[in-house]
Design goal:
Elements lengths: L7 H11 L5 H10 L12 H10 L9 H16 L5
Helix pairs in contact: 1-2, 1-3, 2-3
Length: 85
């Protein structure tokens, strides 16, 4: 299925993924649970959501520099922790 074949409701869910409101996996689950794919189509996976987002021209989500910095700081704190700290 091409992304353009999806319903407007399904496209809205994919747009939520593209703007970073939900993960590709969560989007696929929501599409499957709401029956927003064509009859006979397999259950959408994260890869399908990513492909459809690109086909629809929505692109892929990006994270801000602040989010990257916060994730790096959290990882550094985790790696430098000692047992009992």
């Amino acid at each position: 299925m091409h992304g353009t074949e999806l319903s407007e409701e399904a496209k809205a869910e994919i747009k939520k993924y593209a703007v970073g409101e939900q993960s590709a996996e969560a989007t696929g689950y929501r599409l499957r649970e709401a029956g927003m794919t064509l009859p006979g189509e397999s259950n959408p996976r994260a890869g399908d959501v990513i492909m459809w987002s690109k086909q629809l021209g929505y692109g892929l989500p990006t994270i801000s520099d602040e989010e990257v910095e916060a994730e790096v700081e959290a990882a550094m704190r985790f790696l430098w922790m000692k047992p009992g700290d």
